[in-house]
Design goal:
single chain, 407 residues, alpha/beta, Rossmann fold, six-stranded mixed beta sheet, 14 helices, 42% helix, 17% strand, elongated, binds 6-O-phosphono-beta-D-fructofuranose
């Protein structure tokens, strides 16, 4: 009978999304009653070494002491993983960089009895990497360092790993994954890798466990029905943002994604301030639709001064592109890119909050909830309610929730 047990060994430089993928796999596989456990070298290092191992030189392969300690940690996790599979576990995920051939040869030598699937996470997007490092250094092991020292140290750690990094090639079973876009770049799979169809499916799916999709509070432009621009919140808008912060006070919101526009950042600020440890990350891709020559006009003005624009847009709102601007159809690519960024930076398990705009939120919703294109520009995006979205292979939920906009 074919073996129903498997080792998965993660591969990749630091901050490439390995742990996120590992956690995502564990959760989905466990829901499918496949017993899965993660053996993370970083966690074990932090548990075992009372001493500080956050300084970059610890990761220099020329540092024999550091190397010996890291090899020892890898060895202990191999033993733990083996024990797990030899008792009742189905899948043991070894979550570490496993960057060099040498380390992977050791894994192959030690992890006997069941097949090994290597999963390499690749992402060289500089902007994402910068934001990921920013998140990493909020971990307790960097607390004693100033922010720029911690960033430099982490970047140096990556440089050390890069010196020994060899992409997967010789291994018998492997997947090379673009971990930002959930796209398989290369795969080499022999027969007899249990659960591979399911694993593959999870690797390429855009699941979101908990998304709060909020529109910014009321602005001065909203009062006049004026579009685009970079208007600030009205008193009512500020009160809405405070009410939101009260609504979410008992929930943990580690990151609030906004656009780069004032109104979304202003809406996010009280929420961030009422959270213990939260970060606002503005994402340019979430900026409102660019209405080109119509920016800052009211719909009434457009109708009077540019009747052609008004009527053409009305005829086919989804496909209409504002002169010198955008349309829903042309926003799709950047919105999808923004969603990938937000999912990547959120890690797993995720609670994601996005504070966006009317057209942007319509596009984000349609990414997770199938809508006919012609219906997308008419999706209801109010300012006194928000959407709670769950979209996983096992569950789909789209709930419009009213919060008390007068706290
Ligand atoms: O009116 C607010 C707003 O966010 C504008 O900035 C934007 O042009 C518009 O909504 C998008 O909605 P619609 O596609 O319905 O015009």
């Amino acid at each position: 009978m074919k073996s129903q047990k498997l080792y998965i060994a993660m591969v990749g430089l630091p901050a490439r999304g390995k742990s996120t993928i590992a956690r995502k796999l564990k959760e989905h596989l466990t829901k499918d009653t496949i017993k899965t456990r993660i053996f993370n070298n970083g966690d074990l290092r932090r548990k075992l070494t009372g001493e500080n191992t956050s300084h970059p030189e610890f990761y220099d392969s020329a540092n024999t002491q550091g190397m010996a300690l890291r090899e020892k940690i890898a060895h202990i996790n191999c033993l733990n993983a083996k024990r797990y599979l030899h008792t009742n576990g189905n899948i043991a995920i070894l979550d570490a960089t496993n960057c060099s051939y040498q380390r992977r040869k050791k894994l192959i030598h030690e992890l006997t009895g069941y097949p090994i699937l290597f999963i390499e996470c690749i992402n060289d997007n500089k902007e994402i990497l910068k934001a990921s490092i920013q998140r990493k250094i909020s971990m307790p092991e960097f607390k004693h360092l100033k922010q720029d020292e911690a960033i430099k140290g982490f970047e140096q750690r990556i440089i050390y790993y890069n010196q020994i990094y060899k992409p997967l090639k010789k291994e018998e079973n492997f997947v090379r994954l673009d971990s930002l876009n959930n796209r398989i770049i290369e795969e080499e799979i022999s027969n007899g890798i249990p659960y591979y169809d399911r694993i593959r499916d999870f690797l390429v799916s855009d699941a979101v466990k908990n998304l709060y999709l909020i529109r910014h509070g009321e602005t001065y432009f909203n009062l006049e029905n004026r579009i685009g621009g970079d208007s600030g919140l009205t008193i009512n808008g500020i009160s809405q943002s405070r009410a939101l912060s009260q609504y979410f006070i008992s929930k943990k919101i580690p990151i609030i994604f906004t656009s780069e526009k004032k109104r979304t950042i202003q809406t996010a600020t009280p929420i961030k301030e009422s959270q213990e440890n939260s970060l606002i990350i503005p994402i340019k891709e979430f900026d409102e639709i660019d209405s080109g020559i119509c920016e800052c006009m009211t719909y009434k003005e457009i109708r009077a001064k540019m009747p052609q624009v008004y009527s053409n847009r009305k005829k086919d709102k989804y496909n209409y592109i504002y002169p010198e601007g955008e349309g829903y159809v042309s926003m799709k690519k950047r919105i999808n890119h923004g969603i990938k960024k937000a999912l990547y930076l959120s890690g797993y398990p995720q609670t994601i909050m996005i504070i966006g705009h009317q057209a942007v939120n319509r596009m984000i919703l349609s990414h997770f909830l199938f809508r006919r294109e012609e219906d997308v520009p008419y999706t209801y995006i109010p300012q006194d309610k928000f959407y709670h979205v769950v979209a996983t292979p096992n569950k789909k939920l789209f709930q419009l929730i009213k919060y008390n906009s007068q706290p």
